[in-house]
Amino acid sequence: MGPVLCSRLITITNAETVAFPTEAEPGLDVQLPRMPLLKHDEIPSFLHPSDPFTVLGRAILGQFKKLSKSSYVLMDTIQELELETIEEMSKVCIVKPVGPLFKIPETTNTTIRGDLMKADDCLDWLSSKPPASVVYISFGSIVYFKARTSE
Q: Model pTM?
């Protein structure tokens, strides 16, 4: 999900008055204050009530509802590119842009991998660091944290 959609989801989950697609109205477009209309087909499929993975959508929206309790949110973007979005999101929580992050092009050569270290090397490196001194950031993956862990 891109930063603009994240901003929209934050607004959706923090505003009770925003209409969002339901089973009765799956084609409902979402209109948010000071934002372009979000067409129903622009919303990720797992956020639609008819999708078989609605549990994923509920989990993501649940995380957005907890953002106001976060110290800050890391966002895969560049501040100069999306200043308005960052300012809008900053009304809910502190946003720290950490971009640009580039995707490694796909290749058929299996000797080239996206990770630069073998798993054992990575774990050895991590073990050499003081406790609570490393932040792991994964963009594009979904992880479920227990409430205690995310606090």
A: 0.44
